[in-house]
Design brief:
Strand content: 15-25%
Helix content: 40-55%
CATH class: Alpha Beta
CATH superfamily: Transcriptional coactivator/pterin dehydratase
Number of strands: 4
Radius of gyration: 13 Å
Structural class: alpha+beta
Number of domains: 1
Shape: globular
Strand order of the largest sheet: 1-2-4-3
Largest sheet: 4 strands, antiparallel
Order of helices and strands: HEEHEEH
Distance between the termini: 41 Å
CATH topology: Gyrase A, domain 2
Length: 102
């Protein structure tokens, strides 16, 4: 079973991710505001196959042009290295789409 990261480990690993991420040993979270609703849906459509490849699935909530991303390894009971990896993938996917204010 993967090891749950402690707060210090999470803070260290999030330094290499988008500054919008926050985290605790329970979950990582980021809210992303896209240029419009269709772009927010496109983010989910592009992220989903990458999650399937990893067999690791985020909790996603779509609200107009916002997507709330929450990551946790449920089988381990908290945040693991897999969640940090998936945060990086979410950042990569989001960076290829127009965000609000761009």
């Amino acid at each position: 079973m993967p090891e749950v990261l402690d707060q210090a480990q999470i803070e260290e690993k999030l330094r290499t991710r988008h500054p919008g991420w926050s985290g605790s040993p329970e979950k990582l979270s980021r809210s992303i505001e896209f240029a419009n609703f269709l772009t927010a849906v496109e983010f989910i459509n592009r992220l989903a196959p990458r999650c399937e490849e990893l067999d690791h699935h985020p909790d996603l909530a779509l609200r107009w042009r916002w997507v709330d991303v929450q990551l946790s390894t449920h089988s381990a009971g908290g945040v693991t290295e897999a969640d940090v990896t998936l945060a990086g993938i979410a950042d990569e996917v989001a960076s290829g789409l127009p965000l609000a204010g761009e």
